[in-house]
Amino acid sequence: MAKIKVTQVRSKIKCTETQKRTLAALGLRRINATVEHEDSPVILGMVEKVRHLVSVEK
């Protein structure tokens, strides 16, 4: 499968608890942190939930 790079670009302050947990599940702890994940439907759904906080590269 393809890989995607997910980078947190905005703060999680004032986000809902579920969005904070989604960022933690993705492995993002601070701004400008980057993680690499497989391009699976589960990961894409998580990225979609916090799309206003992250940027994605294929």
Please give a quick description of this structure.
The protein is of the alpha+beta class. The protein contains 2 helices and 3 strands; from the N terminus they run E-H-E-H-E.
For this structure, the CATH topology is Ribosomal Protein L30, Chain: A
CATH C-level class is: Alpha Beta
| Widest sheet: strand ordering | 2-1-3
Number of strands: 3
Report the CATH superfamily.
Ribosomal protein L30/L7
What low-confidence regions span 5 or more consecutive residues with pLDDT below 50? none
User: Mean pLDDT, rounded to whole units?
Assistant: 97
Taking the alpha carbons of the first and last residues, their distance comes to 11 Å
Shape: globular
The sequence of SSEs as H and E is EHEHE
Beta-strand residue fraction? 25-35%
The main β sheet shows up as:
3 strands, antiparallel
Helix content bin: 25-40%
- Structural class, from helix and strand content? alpha+beta
Q: Give me the number of helical elements.
A: 2
In words, what does this structure look like?
Helix content is 33%, strand content 26%. It is an alpha+beta fold and 58 residues long. The chain is globular, with a radius of gyration of 10 Å. 14% of the residues are buried. The mean pLDDT is 97. It has a 3-stranded antiparallel beta sheet with strand order 2-1-3, with no helix packed on it. It has a single domain (3-57), classed as Ribosomal Protein L30, Chain: A (2-Layer Sandwich), CATH 3.30.1390. Helix 1 (17-26) packs across helix 2 (41-49). It has helices at 17-26, 41-49; strands at 3-8, 34-38, 54-57.
